Amino acid sequence: MSAPRRIVVALSGASGAIYGIRALEVIRQDRSVELHAIVSSGAKATIAYETDRSYDDVVGMADVVHDEKNLAASLASGTFLTAGMLVAPCSMRTMSAIANALDDNLIVRAADVHLKERRKLVLMVRETPLNANHLRLMHELALAGAVILPPVPGFYQKPTTLMDLVDHSVAKRSISSRSRIRSSGAGPVRSRSAERRTRARRAENPRRFPALAARTIVVPRRDIAA
Ligand SMILES: Cc1cc2nc3c(=O)[nH]c(=O)nc-3n(C[C@H](O)[C@H](O)[C@H](O)COP(=O)(O)O)c2cc1C
Fold it and tell me: Which atom number of ligand 1 is nearest to the Cα of residue 68?
């Protein structure tokens, strides 16, 4: 029997807890994936400030939940095979620790393992404006193999809701990008209204709007967090 495809989603304490929550919602649609979650204490605070979700609701979407302080967890070792890791949102503190291999918590250690093992690591870094230190560390991480993915939405799909913007960053970019994370089979998740709009625009101009991935999952609006 083949090993399960494991994907790690970590939430750190930058603003935008919804990005990590949405990523968990998207990836868990694929039941062939073993979903691992780590939530920093900073992220516990932003989940409470920014969303109507409880910590238990959030981690309840994962198959395996790890304590950020548990450096003896499976994810701390390169021998524990995973398909990729997403840190969403990624605070400047966590980004800096990853860039410097300061492996003092499990999010940073697991990210470091992904880099050293040459596995996919996507960092949804969130801060603005960015100073020279932030930019230098992002550059170093990109050289080390990380995908730097700030949640900067595009507007070419005419988003009408906040969740359209969130989905653009989470579903379309980080999960379905050319990555091993995509190989999980978790495709972009879009609302039915966004899907209808895209279909109409594609019909008008099929050249300009190539088909979305065949595995697009349409999630009923009630499943989308406020
Ligand atoms: C409401 C709130 C919003 C925050 N937003 C950001 C942010 O957007 N980017 C950032 O780098 N830090 C942000 N912070 C600060 C981080 O939470 C703080 O640096 C924390 O130490 C990060 O720890 P962690 O990376 O271990 O989660 C925010 C803090 C709070 C309370």
Answer: 26
CB < 8 Å & 24+ apart, contacts of 137-140? 137/95, 137/96, 137/99, 138/95, 140/99
Residues 98-149: tens digit of each pLDDT: 999 999 999 999 999 999 999 999 999 999 999 999 999 999 999 999 999 9
Helix (H, G, I), strand (E, B) or coil at 127: coil
Kindly report the pTM of this predicted structure.
0.81
CA of 42 to the centre of ligand 1 (A): 6
pLDDT digits (tens, 9 = 90+) for 42-52: 999 999 999 99
Query: Which is nearest to 80 in space by CA: 113, 107, 109, 102?
Result: 113
* Residue 89 alpha carbon to ligand 1 centre in Å: 9
Q: Which atom of ligand 1 is nearest to the CA of 50?
A: 1
| CB 214 within 8 Å of CB 185 | no
Which overall architecture, per CATH, does domain 5-186 show? 3-Layer(aba) Sandwich (3.40)
List, chain by chain if needed, residues with CB within 6 Å of any ligand 1 atom: 12-15, 40, 42-43, 45-46, 49, 91-94, 126-127
Predicted pLDDT of residue 127: 98
Q: Which ligand 1 atom is the nearest neighbour of the CA of 92? A: 11
